[in-house]
Amino acid sequence: MPDYVTFTRNVFLPVTNVCRNRCRYCGFRREPSDPEANLMTVEEIEQILKQGARFGCTEALFTFGEKPEEHQVFREWIDNIGYFSIIDYLVDLCKLAIECGLLPHSNPGVMDFQDIKRLKPLNASMGLMLETTADLPAHEGCAGKKLSERIETIKNAGKLKIPFTTGLLIGIGESMEDRVQSLDTIKELHLRYRHIQEVIIQPFSPKPGTVMAGFPEPAHQEMVDTVMAARSILPDDVAIQVPPNLTRFEELIGCGASDLGGISPYTIDWINPEAQWPQIPELAEKLRGIRLRERLPIYPGYVLAGWYDPGLGDLIERYTDGDGFRDGNRH
User: Fold this and answer.
1) Distances (CA, A) of 313 to 9, 95, 301, 304
2) Could you state, in order of their start, the residue ranges of all structural domains in the chain?
3) pTM metric for this prediction
4) What is the reported pLDDT for 331?
């Protein structure tokens, strides 16, 4: 058992649900013509950021569909608010988050080196799920799920020394051998660049109206086996995260997991809206005496090593204690 389990307190900002990919399991994506398709306004985002700060959050989690401007209608939307691309818009949203006192963590999908470089000064950490190294029907026709491009994005973040989150999506048709290969790939990337701070082991959750709505969720034993494999394969300085709203996390902690990811006191999990976040006292109770420690979106080791832009220094120093964790006296 670990001495402690970590989490971060965040707000979840789904900037747009328009996406170029058509993953067969995704319930988040919308076509621009869909009445539920959206592009959040600055005013909407600012209100959430300010409320998040009042709730003691330190992380602004920005996520959205990948390269939505490949859709003509979305290009018109983004042009109407004065931007050429979603990344241009994200740059200003990250600046706004910092002004509101939150540290950005962005998940924009596959990006080129220059876009990652633009975002680096404004993000405490960034992320992209590897999901799997296997070629699966679940990703058929999805340009952004091409393995070489996803690895290149993770690699470029390493070249730029960005603390990074990646992970596996369990139960979308991959085998255990595929999962081991995926973990080996992540290990090789980390050993080369030392930038992967955590690996999420996330179970597939079927969504109504999707092609894979009838697929079963992975059995708990599959999660146990994968977490144990991850802990045996990955270097010790890479944390294993399990989402507490989708797993029997208290049992997975005993298998090698040590982090519960972002818990929001204000926003829902927009990717899995049916799965409510547990309250923090509930987490502590289920951990049965294992200490629960709050961190920032940048892990303590990277805080102490100075892996952040000087422009984020004031916020990071304001929120952290001498060990790089969230200072409990500064909520």
Assistant:
1) 19, 14, 15, 12
2) 4-319
3) 0.97
4) 56
